[in-house]
Amino acid sequence: MTKGVVHRALDGYRFQISGDLDLTQPFTSVARFAVDGRLYELTSGDHNAATGWTDDLRVQRFDDEFSVQRGRLRTVMVTDHDARIGLEDHLLAVVWEGHEFSMFVPMYNARPADAVRLFQVLTMTEHEDGITVASRNPKRAGIAEPADVVKEVPGLGLLEITALTKTTARRLPQWSGARLPHGELFRDTLDDDSTYFMLATPSAMVTVLPHGSAADVPGRLGGLKVETVD
């Protein structure tokens, strides 16, 4: 098993995850940016993450391609069906491909030129452990919500990791949690009555959505260490 990995979130925080668990699965990072009064959800990961997204949208080929910030910006217009409410939206699927990582953005009521303008306001920097995004013009764009790192851990569940700051600490429950070797563990339920856990470490917050029975999660989390690193 991999004893430790480091993943970089879109807002620049780097998380070191270690423990006697299978940490070999890839990760994604999600952040929301406000640009010129509109909100965009950016998701980064390895190239397979972007390919998986476009496959879900049944994209067979892209319509347009541009050279942007040492990468390839590709766009295609697709029809996004929402079976739950019986409606459909015309979606511009936007993918920026770097050397090792990609980033994808759904844009509604947009054209390829709008995607190019978006990437003229935002700056992408590719690192060996992920992508970071920054605004070139703080008056026009800025991060709206803290970025997180999302990672599947077999035998445990889906981890959603964000830095512990004054802003994110507001999400912590008001009651005391159980003490673990590397943090404090809280247990709660979602609207559908399914159980989830939140692990607060000295520098990070980890939400855990269990794959199976929740009974084994506290024991497995006892050996998990998550911390921000420079």
Overview of the molecule:
With 230 residues, the chain is mainly β. The chain contains three helices and 17 strands. Strands 5-6-7-8-4-3-11-12-16-15-14-13 form a twelve-stranded antiparallel beta sheet. Strands 1-2-17 form a three-stranded antiparallel beta sheet, with no helix packed on it. The chain has a two-stranded antiparallel sheet with strand order 9-10. It starts with a strand and ends with a strand.
SS elements, strand count = 17
What's the pLDDT, averaged over the residues?
A: 93
- Anisotropy-based shape: globular
Strand residue content: over 45%
Query: Tally the helices: what do you get?
Result: 3
Strand order of the largest sheet: 5-6-7-8-4-3-11-12-16-15-14-13
Q: What is the succession of H and E elements?
A: EEEEHEEEEHEEEEEEEEHE
Write down the Rg: 19 Å
Largest sheet: 12 strands, antiparallel
Q: pLDDT under 50 segments (min length 5)?
A: none
The helix content, as a percent range, equals: 10-25%
Q: How far is it from the N-terminal to the C-terminal residue, by CA? A: 24 Å
Structural class: mainly beta
Outline:
The protein is mainly beta. Helices cover 11% and strands 54% of the residues. It has helices at 47-56, 112-121, 217-221; strands at residues 4-8, 14-18, 27-35, 38-46, 64-68, 71-82, 87-97, 101-108, 122-127, 130-135, 141-153, 157-163, 178-180, 183-189, 195-200, 204-210, 225-229.
Please name the defining characteristics of this protein:
3 helices; 230 residues; mainly beta; globular; three-stranded antiparallel β-sheet; twelve-stranded antiparallel β-sheet
